[in-house]
Structures are given as C-alpha cells and as structure tokens.
C-alpha cells in the first residue's frame, strides 16, 4: 500500500487552511487508516463506526483483537450516540481535563460504534485530545475516530512523524506530519465504570491532579505493574526497544574504564549525570536535571527509538529517576521497556 504523507507543520494552528484537508477527511470517511498527531503520542486513526476500518487498525499494528481501542472525539455531545451514562463525578473531571491527555472508560451504549472497537466489552474508552491538528481534524471529519498509538504492537509509542513512518510506512493510507508530541506518554486511562474510579494506566494527568478536582473519588491502590490489569492492553509486553535495557539508580564514581568495551553500551540519563559516564559510551539525554519529570516524559520514547538506531551495542542503562508520585507514569513505561530488569549500580 502506498502511504501518503501530508506535511501540516505550517498549519498547526490553522489546519482549516491546509489545501489538502478535504483529501484527508475523504479517506477517513471511506474507511481509510491515517496516523494523526496528538499531544500524548501519534495515533493510528480510523472511523470508529466502520467495522472494516477498525479491523484494518488491528491488522496494520499486528495487535491482538481482545485489546480495545480509544475513541477520539471533538465535542462531548458526540458521546450521546455511544455512551450510556456520564455520572456527575465523571463530568467534573471531563470539565477539568478535556480537551487533554486523559481517557475515560465509560458504560457503552451499543449499536452505533462497530463491535470490535470495544473488543466485546460493555465499556468504551473515550478521549478528547487537545492537539490543535487533532482537534481541527476531528471537527472536520465529524466522526468518532478510533486511534491506538501508531506503532507496531510491542514497539515503543511514536512521538514523532519519523517514528510512525519507521513502523507503519506501506501498511496504512497516510501519515500526517506534524511536530513532536508534547506530553510524550500515552494518556492517563481512568476507569469510571466502578466507584471509586480506578487508574487503569498512569499518565501525565496524575493521581494528585485528579484528587484535587474530586477528593476521595480515585481508588488509592498503588499502581502495581504486575497486578491483573484493568486495561487489557497493560498485560502485553509493551514499549520495548530492541536493545536490552536495565534500570539503574547509582553510577559509581570509580568506574573502571578498562573493564568493559563501553563503546558497546549506551546510557539514557539526565544531563547532570553525563560527567560520570565513561568516555566511549553512548549518551542519550532525557532531561537537564533528575527532577525534571516533565522533560523525561516528553523525551522517553524518542530516546528508546534513538537507542535502536545505534549500530552494534550490547545493552543500555536508563536512570531510574526519583520514585515519587509525579513520576508514576514515567516509571510505569520505563519498567515495561526494561522488562523489570534492574541493576543496583553500574560500575
Ligand atoms: O494517549 C493515548 O491514549 C493514545 C493517543 C493516540 O490517543 N492512544 C493510545 O491507545 O495509547 P492504545 O490503544 O495504545 O492504548 C489504549 C489503552 C489500552 O491499554 C487498552 O487496553 C485500554 O486503553 N482500553 C481501551 N478500552 C478499554 C476499556 N473499555 N476498558 C479498559 N481498558 C481499555
Ligand atoms: Mg499503544
């Protein structure tokens, strides 16, 4: 399949003026698959009411079909067609965080969306993205758009056009070339079908941000990466780079530089720590300081993709960052990327 590329970087805030907008819209309406930018990661979008289009998403990604998709909307009124009920508490959170990087799991009203979007569940995941290109597109298409992250299943999520192109060129109808995703990690997924609400996937909208709007409504379970997942997608091995990755917390000051061939090793860490790394090793910087979680979130997936571009390396070490509430999503993704592998100290 030929994949068309639409470069909209000059139209970020005025997509309506982009000359080929109607071409994109037509392809969506005809059931095509197009990758679109969002503020979290790039998505692979298709008409959520078109069974064949949605099957195409699962095929293009190589994704198991028991893993349901998120439906993206422009206007809350669109939910009337496919959501059975929005509680007052849920509404408060929507008012506070939409448009933005949070997905709500809500009771499904059957009949409007195609069956496989929800993977046979009684609930449906809904998100209203804030990215100006995504918003303009959703408004123009005027259809709910199902969109998982635009990566091959099991690969890190894409935060740039190049990441999408690498994984899906030739497998989908088109890719919208926009700027790097701002948040950098996938949306927070909040299950609102039970009370208290449960965080099914941590994201950049943190537990404390939710608590501030709605005290005592969020289940305070610690997010356990091994627990039976609420979001089916969390049970799959995820976000893994091809290079074996380990998490470290300390770099020894007395690294024995002759002990290993450091040119075959990469470090992913804050700039403030690079002076401790042996000269020959590869360095990928995630943030300036170890306290800058926002920057680390933003850069994590690009760093994992970059890692796989380095020829001939044996393994990589990623700094574990402070284990605090703000870093819950960062840790969640990092632990998965490293497949739970830790080292006490790199020497
Ligand atoms: O930031 C994001 O959420 C991105 C952008 C493109 O919007 N999308 C994304 O989609 O990350 P995906 O498919 O990669 O992840 C969706 C997650 C999966 O873990 C899935 O299992 C879960 O949401 N999910 C979807 N529907 C669900 C449901 N009804 N109940 C529980 N979990 C659900
Ligand atoms: Mg994904």
Automatic annotation (TrEMBL):
PROSITE patterns: YRDC. One of its GO terms (molecular function) is L-threonylcarbamoyladenylate synthase. Its main location: cytoplasm. Its EC number is 2.7.7.87. It catalyses: L-threonine + hydrogencarbonate + ATP = L-threonylcarbamoyladenylate + diphosphate + H2O. It is found in: Cytoplasm. InterPro entries: DHBP_synth_RibB-like_a/b_dom (IPR017945), Sua5-like_dom (IPR006070), Sua5/YwlC_C (IPR038385), Sua5_C (IPR005145), T(6)A37_SUA5 (IPR010923), TC-AMP_synthase_SUA5 (IPR050156). Residues 18-205 form the YrdC-like domain. Keywords: ATP-binding, Cytoplasm, Nucleotide-binding, Nucleotidyltransferase, Transferase, tRNA processing. NCBIfam families: L-threonylcarbamoyladenylate synthase. Required for the formation of a threonylcarbamoyl group on adenosine at position 37 (t(6)A37) in tRNAs that read codons beginning with adenine. Belongs to the SUA5 family. This is Threonylcarbamoyl-AMP synthase. The lineage of its organism: Bacteria, Bacillati, Bacillota, Bacilli, Bacillales.
């Amino acid at each position: 399949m030929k994949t068309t590329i639409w470069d909209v970087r000059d139209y970020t805030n005025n997509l309506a003026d982009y000359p080929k907008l109607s071409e994109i819209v037509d392809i969506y309406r005809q059931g095509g698959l197009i990758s679109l930018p969002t503020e979290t990661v790039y998505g692979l979008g298709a008409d959520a009411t078109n069974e064949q289009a949605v099957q195409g998403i699962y095929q293009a990604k190589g994704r198991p079909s028991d893993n349901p998709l998120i439906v993206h909307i422009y206007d809350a009124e669109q939910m009337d067609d496919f959501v059975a009920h929005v509680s007052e508490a849920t509404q408060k959170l929507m008012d506070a965080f939409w448009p933005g990087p949070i997905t709500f799991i809500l009771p499904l009203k059957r009949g409007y969306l195609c069956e496989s979007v929800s993977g046979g569940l009684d609930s449906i995941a809904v998100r209203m993205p804030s990215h100006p290109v995504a918003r303009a597109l959703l408004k123009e298409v005027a259809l709910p758009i199902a969109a998982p992250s635009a990566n091959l299943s099991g690969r890190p999520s894409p935060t740039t056009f190049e990441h999408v192109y690498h994984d899906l060129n030739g497998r989908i109808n088109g890719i919208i070339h926009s700027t790097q995703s701002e948040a950098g990690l996938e949306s927070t997924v909040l299950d609102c079908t039970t009370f208290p609400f449960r965080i099914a996937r941590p994201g950049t909208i943190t537990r404390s941000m939710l608590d501030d709007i709605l005290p005592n409504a969020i289940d305070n379970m610690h997010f356990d990466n091994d627990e039976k997942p609420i979001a089916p997608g969390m049970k799959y091995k995820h976000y893994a780079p091809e290079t074996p990755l380990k998490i470290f917390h300390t770099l020894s000051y007395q690294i024995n530089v002759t002990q290993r061939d450091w040119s075959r090793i990469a470090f992913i860490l804050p700039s403030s720590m690079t002076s401790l790394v042996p000269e020959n090793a590869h360095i990928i910087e995630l943030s300036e300081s170890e306290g800058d979680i926002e920057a680390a979130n933003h850069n994590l997936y690009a760093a994992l993709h970059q890692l796989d571009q380095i020829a001939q390396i044996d393994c990589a070490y990623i700094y574990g960052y402070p284990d605090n509430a703000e870093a819950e999503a960062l840790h969640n993704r990092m632990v998965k990327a490293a497949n739970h592998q830790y080292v006490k100290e790199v020497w």
